[in-house]
Amino acid sequence: MLTLDFHPTGRHFLQIPGPSPVPDRILRAMSLPTIDHRGPEFGALGLRVLKGIQQIFQTKHPVIIYPASGTGAWEAALCNVLSPGDQVLMYETGHFASLWNKMAMRLGLKTEFIGLPGTEGWRRGVQADMIEARLKADTQHAIKAVCVVHNETSTGVTSNIVAVRKAIDAAKHPALLLVDSISGLASAEYKHDEWGVDVTISGSQKGLMLPPGISFNALSPKAIEASKKAKLPKAFWAWDEIIEMNKTGYWPYTPNTNLLYGLAEACDMLLAPEHGGLPAVFARHERWGEGVRAGVKAWGLEIQCADPAVYSPVLTGVITPEGVDADAVRKIIYDRFDCSLGTGLGKVKGRMFRIGHLGDCNDLTLMAALAGCEMGLKLAGVKLAGSGVQAAMEFFASHPARLPMQKAA
Ligand SMILES: Cc1ncc(COP(=O)(O)O)c(C=O)c1O
Known about the structure:
Blueprint: E1 13-15, H1 24-30, H2 40-57, E2 63-66, H3 70-81, E3 87-91, H4 95-106, E4 110-114, H5 128-137, E5 143-149, E6 151-152, E7 157-158, H6 161-170, E8 176-180, E9 199-203, E10 215-219, H7 221-227, H8 239-246, H9 257-271, H10 277-299, E11 302-303, E12 315-319, H11 326-337, E13 339-341, E14 352-356, H12 363-379, H13 388-398
This protein binds pyridoxal-5'-phosphate (PLP).
Residues 18, 69-71, 96, 149, 153, 180, 182-183, 203, 212 line the site of pyridoxal-5'-phosphate.
């Protein structure tokens, strides 16, 4: 056994915003024997997961599944629809938007990275009017794609993708819309077709409640057309061969069989009509977010997201008071209470920590995480205005979940 796996006093509290805790039901599904990926049983599994994941993305069009982390799916999205030197408009919402921008530059694209100055943009969602203004100025239509992050995992801010779509349409601009919903999918509302997204990128280790290791590109017909002319080099990531083989439930290479067992189980759990389906999943995460924020506000600490209209239902970023190293607080909570919280990334390193409220959790696991935070903050010498634990308890007790817990997905 790895020492990392040795938690003598019960389960480790994995409260980072992904990888999220994996439900036992999914772990059991993944423990089935690995089968022949060219055999008859596999085709049925492939067709099942491809149908299930379309329902999660709310799309009728192909969804590509890669045996890769989300970063691979980012690269796949760019190299399937763009050509060397293409201009791409990217929006800075945080660390992950910045990493995607860096990747686009490494791939030989000309990126323009817009956003609010300094760390201000890391506290608010995408400002769609800035995108509209930039696209209107691009009268020659040199910009080939607009890239935004739906749920910025580094900050806990969820952007309004419908507003971005409207901005592109208002500018009458033909650019493709590429959206990273790696940490939004299956936790925050997301509608690939209805929202007019051309490529949505996602990953397994967040709302889908799976371990890391598979990732996705959901496509639009316009994206598929663009992929036929795009010239960036691609082989492993190329959509065409995958789409062709997926028609019978197979892949051109060895797929991640046991993660696909897990994905089939995850789709059953998330989509089950008797558990309320996706609307219940979204409502559950919204409620958890509200409960956690009630706690943070009662501590008297600032939430990284400065605009309540775009609070993330997936995670909450907590800013520590001036002079308090957020990573030192996290270390105390990890060492003393066996609870992992997300670190501050990039521009906000040391200034904030992140509480994930996604995956296999419930009111009581979140209460435990908040208790760990409250004790850790006090041990770190932070003067709290009040008890966040008490405030969150009051919130959860007075706001019952839409479905009784025993029935929820
Ligand atoms: C919004 C977002 N984009 C991209 C990534 C990168 O994905 P991965 O680490 O799976 O490669 C992450 C990872 O946390 C993320 O949260």
